[in-house]
């Protein structure tokens, strides 16, 4: 059973094809994401921004479709079930979780990339406000 | 920041938050006539050659920042693994960080497989990473090493394409170095001959290209042995001052000398202790 409320799932589950705002009904959520400008939403600030945002998603899609072609439908289904289970092992939303099981499944515990060196979330200067983050996750907000 | 909260946990990696601001800044300053500071590059000559028992890599040692030499003796041959070394041209920070990341990844990989890493593995890791960033990481590399399949030499371009060749050159002085290679390369050379060839190729780059200069570093990799010769040849030595503007003693003749001693008596003596606790 997914611990996230249905409403928050709907908000985040749309795969990011462009830079459309993340609020409900596609309207900008000023409380959480700040003020808007049309230019910000239409054009990415850097050509790599979109591709980096979707990197994990695209890589997974590619790997799963290759796996399906080689080993049949069962293999990616089983793996995705394991990913879903591993993704649920989290601390409270405003605390950082290690995601150890997810890393081991993905194989990213054996590689170092720029996401481990630059902008390390462990050294982040801001912290999410606990109440709002929990309410967002439960879908109450 | 106009936000009150953040609803999504922060993730690492490159952050593109300031790109729009930087673009505006650049527009503004260019209107006023200034230019933003340039990244430190290694306008360079790097090259490599495969000889009978292994690989010889060579590099010059100048790092430039726009029109100024930033480092007269920088080291451009980076360690990847005990049997693989990599020369880097392009933006200095990019080559440094990229080779360090790949070196760490290769170490983890070799611990996981339990074998000495192969040059082809390093090549594939580098090209996949550079392609992912679509050439925005300005690192042009010459990768060479000896593994269980023999000596290998690859050249890797910033957009992620690679070539496997017996002799390669990269950097701003690559044409000068390639001219030397094309003239004198022979397959299956001896070690001394290969070292002389690389030295001459880098020297051609140093003397004919403004972006390359100072000394020549060499790295000879054979099966089981690496010779990192830094510097192999000081092609550009800074001169020694031949003259001196100080006058010697006796330049002015002494006519008379009169000595008068000063009599000083001790009037008072007091001791002040320092607090050294």
Automatic annotation (TrEMBL), chain A:
Which BP terms does GO give this entry? proteasome assembly
What keywords tag this UniProt record? Chaperone
Stored InterPro entries: Ump1
Q: Source organism's superkingdom?
A: Eukaryota
Question: Does the record's keyword annotation contain Transport?
Answer: no
Q: Name one GO cellular component term.
A: nucleus
Keyword Electron transport in annotation: no
Q: Tell me which family the UniProt entry assigns to this protein.
A: Belongs to the POMP/UMP1 family.
Q: Under what name is this protein listed?
A: Proteasome maturation protein
Which organism does this record belong to? Kryptolebias marmoratus
TrEMBL record, chain B:
Task: Provide the coiled-coil residue spans.
Answer: none
Sequence ranges assigned to domain Proteasome beta subunit C-terminal in this UniProt record: 235-271
User: One GO biological process from the UniProt record?
Assistant: proteolysis involved in protein catabolic process
User: Could you tell me which Gene3D superfamilies the record lists for this protein?
Assistant: Glutamine Phosphoribosylpyrophosphate, subunit 1, domain 1
Pfam families recorded: Pr_beta_C, Proteasome
Q: Does the keyword Disulfide bond apply?
A: no
- Please indicate which superkingdom the organism of origin belongs to: Eukaryota
Q: Where in the cell is it found?
A: Cytoplasm; Nucleus
Reactions it catalyzes: Cleavage of peptide bonds with very broad specificity
Keywords, A to Z? Answer: Cytoplasm, Hydrolase, Nucleus, Protease, Proteasome, Threonine protease
* Record-linked PROSITE patterns: PROTEASOME_BETA_1, PROTEASOME_BETA_2
Q: Where are the transmembrane segments?
A: none
| Stored InterPro entries | Ntn_hydrolases_N (IPR029055), Pept_T1A_subB (IPR000243), Proteasome_bsu_C (IPR024689), Proteasome_bsu_CS (IPR016050), Proteasome_sua/b (IPR001353), Proteasome_suB-type (IPR023333)
Q: What GO MF terms are annotated?
A: threonine-type endopeptidase activity
Q: Name one GO cellular component term.
A: cytoplasm
Q: Which residues form the active site?
A: 44 (nucleophile)
Q: Which family does it belong to?
A: Belongs to the peptidase T1B family.
User: Which PANTHER family did the record assign?
Assistant: METALLOPROTEASE TLDD, PROTEASOME SUBUNIT BETA TYPE-7
Describe its function.
Answer: Component of the proteasome, a multicatalytic proteinase complex which is characterized by its ability to cleave peptides with Arg, Phe, Tyr, Leu, and Glu adjacent to the leaving group at neutral or slightly basic pH. The proteasome has an ATP-dependent proteolytic activity.
Describe its assembly.
Component of the proteasome complex.
Query: What is the designated name of this protein?
Result: Proteasome subunit beta
Lineage, highest ranks first: Eukaryota, Metazoa, Chordata, Craniata, Vertebrata
């Amino acid at each position: 059973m997914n611990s996230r409320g249905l409403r928050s799932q709907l908000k985040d589950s749309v795969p990011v094809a462009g830079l459309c705002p993340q609020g409900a009904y596609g309207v900008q959520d000023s409380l959480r994401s700040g003020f808007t400008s049309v230019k910000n939403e239409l054009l990415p600030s850097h050509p790599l921004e979109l591709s980096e945002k979707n990197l994990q998603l695209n890589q997974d899609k590619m790997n799963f479709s290759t796996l399906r072609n080689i080993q049949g439908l069962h293999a990616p289904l089983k793996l995705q079930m394991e990913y879903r289970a591993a993704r649920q092992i989290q601390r409270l939303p405003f605390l950082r979780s290690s995601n150890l099981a997810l890393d081991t499944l993905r194989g990213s515990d054996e590689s170092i990339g720029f996401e481990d060196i630059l902008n390390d979330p462990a050294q982040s200067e801001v912290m999410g406000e606990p109440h709002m983050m929990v309410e967002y996750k439960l879908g109450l907000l | 920041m106009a936000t009150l909260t953040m609803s999504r946990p922060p993730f690492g990696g490159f952050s593109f938050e300031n790109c729009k601001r930087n673009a505006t800044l650049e527009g503004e300053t260019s209107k006023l006539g200034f230019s933003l500071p340039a990244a430190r590059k290694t306008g360079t000559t790097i090259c490599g050659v495969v000889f009978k028992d292994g690989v010889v890599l060579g590099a010059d040692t100048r790092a430039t920042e726009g029109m100024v030499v930033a480092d007269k003796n920088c080291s451009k041959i980076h360690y990847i693994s005990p049997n693989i070394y990599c020369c880097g041209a392009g933006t200095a920070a990019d080559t440094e960080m990229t080779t360090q990341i790949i070196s760490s990844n290769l170490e983890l990989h070799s611990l996981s497989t339990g074998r000495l890493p192969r040059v082809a593995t390093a090549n594939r890791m580098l090209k996949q990473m550079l392609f992912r960033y679509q050439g925005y990481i300005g690192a042009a590399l010459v990768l060479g090493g000896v593994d269980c399949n023999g000596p290998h030499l690859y050249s890797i371009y910033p957009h992620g394409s690679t070539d496997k060749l017996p002799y390669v050159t990269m950097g701003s002085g690559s044409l000068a170095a390639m001219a030397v290679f094309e003239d004198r390369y022979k397959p299956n050379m001896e070690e001394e001959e290969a070292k002389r060839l690389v030295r001459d190729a880098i020297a051609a780059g140093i003397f004919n290209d403004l972006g390359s200069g100072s000394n020549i570093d060499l790295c000879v990799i054979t099966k089981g042995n690496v010779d990192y010769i830094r510097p192999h040849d000081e092609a550009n030595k800074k001169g020694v001052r031949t003259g001196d503007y100080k006058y010697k003693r006796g330049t002015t003749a002494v006519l008379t000398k009169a000595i008068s001693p000063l009599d000083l008596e001790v009037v008072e003596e007091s001791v002040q202790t320092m607090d050294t606790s």
